[in-house]
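Quick start: read one record
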Amino acid sequence: MALELRQQLKLAQKLVMTPQLRQAIKLLQLNRLELSNALQAEIEQNPALEEDISPKETAENLQALSATTEQTAEPGREQDVTEKVAVTDNMNEVNWEDYANNFDSNFSFAHETPPADAPSQFEFISEKPGLMAYLRWQLAHCDLDEKEMEIALFIIGNLNRYGFLEVDLAKVMEVTECPQDDADYILEVIQDLDPPGIAARDISESLYLQLERIGKKNSLAAEIVQHHLPLLVTRNFKVLAKATKRKKLEVVRAVDFITRELTPFPGLPYATDNTNYIVPDVYVEKIDGEYIIRLNNDDLPRLKLSTHYQELLRDNKEMEKTSRHYISDKLRNADWFIKSLYQRQRTIYKVMESLLKFQHDFFERGPHHLHPLILKDVADDIEMHESTVSRVTSNKYVHTPQGIYELKYFFSTAIPRTGGDALAAESVKVRIKQMIKEEDKAKPLSDNAIAEKLAGQDIKIARRTVAKYRDQLKILPVKHRRHAKSRP
């Protein structure tokens, strides 16, 4: 059989992911903070896309840029603001000493004496010192020579955020080329610094150093943290009393002292990790008995097509073909980006509107009244695909009268209930959390006991399901929650 080339026509349907479609999907799954960065990046990359800031807008109505309904500025307002800004200040009347050394949220140039305990403004603009900076400041007051300071700086440079030393002394001796006596001496110097328990190799040593600092190195508490730390973690007082050959009451008092007065991670209070705050993507507010949905467009720029490039493409008929193609392509991309952004906001609004309809009892009465819900229910309601709903609800948060929740929170599997409607799994988790919060700390509830109490509320779930929910709530097992009552 001879090989030959042939032409053949074939009709087939195929899903093509165009760059515009990929961009729309990407915008849809971005959260509020990621969207702000994406808008700024697109403005920088596409010259045909620019921020819409009209010269008629004043300082008062600039806040209306991202609002759902635009507000009209009062006539003459811009002229009034301009006149106030144009007033010449008398620099000689400014109290610069108060301005430089004091901070007041209601700042003014008046000659008023601030309170003695008022914080300095430099406390707000300077960098917060961390653990290493605090230890270096203390080492500066120690009588160490140049070599000893080198060893000390290497040791504190190898402390983790909890204040533990992550290298052994052999590594310290190898890198700093010092004898063991010098390494031991410098480590003792650092362990005498503040906070107590710093530069320990493990939790046991850290707790012992703290006890040694307050003169309790020969106490029962010191024996427990040195030799019986696993029993301390599980609070097994009976076995601890047998291991230490002490009365149970003495063991209980020693353990209470350890947990109350000592800290297992001495360096943690000096950690300089930045706190990441959640910025809601949607606000749901109850006004006059009716729930209002408002998208969070604060600080998001309004976009428009560049007027300059539009006029250039329309008026300049003699432009080169490559230049005309470039400008046309950029304008088309910018127009598609604005439409994709509008479609994203509209989709989020429709999903939130559907969630508000399905979970109305939650918004009225709280998490106990959360109903079972799946993606398909919302997708069918708004006539979209489940994957679209999944992208919209990923990594996005809503501010409700009940608090801030992730949109995924409203989707929960159903837990059967005898003699009543099914409950959402999240609702059952809330009940478990409330039971553990109200339990007797001396006799905490086991997973079996929680399952039995839920069964009394016509909620039948297995013990292993209770254990799974408890782990998801990051609640310790019963043996770690037990607190014995000590007699006075």
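Residues 321-358 form the longest helix (38 residues).
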